[in-house]
Amino acid sequence: MTGRLEEAKWRLVGFAGTGIINLIFRTMKIKIKGFEAVQELIKSKRFVFAFWHSRILMVSFLYQGWGAAIMVSQSRDGEIIARILSRQRHRIIRGSTTRGGVRALAKMIRILKKDGCSGAVIPDGPQGPRCQVQPGVITLGKKTGHAIIPVTYSARRIKVFSSWDRFILPRPFTKGIFVYGKPLWVSKLTTSDEEDELRIQLENELNRITRLADNYYGHTTL
């Protein structure tokens, strides 16, 4: 009985969370920046989105129904995110840099190579350091050949939480901007030193486009 009640609770969390996200973002006017440069790449589905932990909501909303493989931590917060993403018809792979990460990364590599689907990684999750890329996403790009596309968003009226990641929640009926950054490819012949250089390059690009999105509305959340 306890197990069924727990499952019912988590299903309700997923249902309510998805409903709130749809309510917020369907009432927003969203400006898209940088899509033309990655349009063909996105059509191919041979890409992995990378975005900061604080900027997940608009990404999952705009791409719901795509069936992307998304790595989500095994934490309690990760369970909330996983339930919402499942209702948005994404494929959830549980793991992070702290728990089950190697196994989850290996599973994600298999899925992306076998099914040819897109993927998504939160490179500073589940507990930071905030806005610092962990190496897993570079390994994913190297093993699959998928391009890594940094993405982010911001909005005019937002609530910034006092959490470790300074998570943002747009207000309903506000204006927002979604930004695509410069794609990054990782060759199978890339050395470990080159991988670290690419990791820093991705981190810098994510921070650049996040500042761009925030500054568009006069925010300095970074």
In short:
Helices cover 45% and strands 18% of the residues. It has 7 helices and 9 strands.
What proportion strand?
15-25%
**CATH topological fold name:** Glycerol-3-phosphate (1)-acyltransferase
Number of domains: 1
Unreliable parts: none
Shape: globular
**Briefly, what CATH class?**
Alpha Beta
Largest sheet at a glance? 7 strands, mixed
Helical content (DSSP H or I, runs of 4+): 40-55%
Give your account of this protein's structure.
- This protein has one domain: Glycerol-3-phosphate (1)-acyltransferase, CATH 3.40.1130.10.
- It contains seven helices and nine strands, in the order H-E-H-E-H-E-H-E-H-E-H-E-E-E-E-H.
- A seven-stranded mixed sheet has the order 1-9-6-2-5-3-4, with helices on both faces.
- It starts with a helix and ends in a 6-residue tail after the last helix.
Features:
Glycerol-3-phosphate (1)-acyltransferase, two-stranded antiparallel sheet, 222 residues, 7 helices, 7-stranded mixed β-sheet, single chain, alpha/beta
Tell me the layout of helices and strands.
Blueprint: H1 2-26, E1 29-33, H2 39-44, E2 47-50, H3 56-62, E3 69-72, H4 76-87, E4 91-94, H5 101-115, E5 119-121, H6 136-144, E6 147-155, E7 158-160, E8 168-170, E9 175-180, H7 192-216
Parallel strand pairs: 1-9, 2-5, 2-6, 3-4, 3-5
Antiparallel strand pairs: 6-9, 7-8
